[in-house]
Design goal:
Elements: E1 8-12, H1 17-28, E2 32-37, H2 56-68, E3 73-77, H3 83-97, E4 102-105, H4 120-146, E5 151-156, H5 169-189, E6 194-201, H6 207-216, H7 223-234, H8 243-255, E7 263-266
Parallel strand pairs: 1-2, 1-4, 2-3, 4-5, 5-6, 6-7
Helix pairs in contact: 1-2, 1-8, 3-4, 4-5, 6-7
Bound molecules: nicotinamide-adenine-dinucleotide (NAD).
Amino acid sequence: MTQLNGQVALVTGGARGIGRGIALALAKAGVDVAIADLERISGGAQQYSTDTIGGFTEAQKTVAEIIALGRRAVAIQADVRQKADAARMVAETVNGLGALHILVCNAGVVSVAPIESMDEDTWDLTFDVNAKGVFLSCQAAIPALKTHGKGCIINIASIAGKNGAAGLAHYCASKFAVVGFTNSLAKELAVTNIRVNAICPGILRTQMWEYLAETLKKPSESKEDAWQRYIKGMIPLGRPQTPDDIGQLAVYLASAENVTGQAINVDGGVELH
Ligand SMILES: NC(=O)c1ccc[n+]([C@@H]2O[C@H](COP(=O)([O-])OP(=O)(O)OC[C@H]3O[C@@H](n4cnc5c(N)ncnc54)[C@H](O)[C@@H]3O)[C@@H](O)[C@H]2O)c1
């Protein structure tokens, strides 16, 4: 196992939710962390109401938490859909923290839309953030990772990258894309000793599931009832996952020198492949 103390990670979408959990877990393992996030998700297909989203101030709060743990941290405003932003977030990480050893591609969006009535903006936003964002972030980071003769990329896919779900075809397709991209990139980069793995989280009550519970609730149900229905109905272990659960696997993958090309579920037993 690689010692992580003193390594540097860049976590996209690290301001809140799963990304924040991964950033804090890495920091507790001795890693300095750059958080890349954007001010707001803009565009016609914006899926959350802006009053529930803290924006870039959330990234600065996460940075303050990492510094309180005794590690160095920087917040970088970047939109993973933009090639120039991806290049700049890597450059600012290396300039600010001295190196880049671990890239975590976590930024993602969700929305619920049946295919027959889905507008193109919804499809495009989902693929631009969830799939193209991973491609651009990896492409930008590879030269910096290569300079150490080894490196680690962790892409956050989903159980929706292993199995389809009604109303989520665009989201599932984007997450299947992340799993396929991860498998392929692992083979392509093996010769450089850069390992590439994916984590497939199950159900976590982040902003993403606040939105999903509200959107998927039946007319007779409260949002809380809908949340409980999904937890009890879908998860064999009967409990939701936490950002720290995902962070623990990220720490393992960052240190596991013989693990590459995997897409590992952290889902309480929902998906068994
Ligand atoms: N919550 C779950 O149950 C769940 C399950 C499986 C997979 N995931 C995946 O985990 C990842 C994190 O999700 P979460 O639940 O923490 O959601 P979240 O909405 O709380 O966090 C997503 C983060 O990504 C950022 N982001 C969105 N678009 C961006 C862009 N274009 N550029 C940079 N940053 C951007 C947001 O600002 C936010 O900080 C996503 O990829 C999501 O698909 C979540």
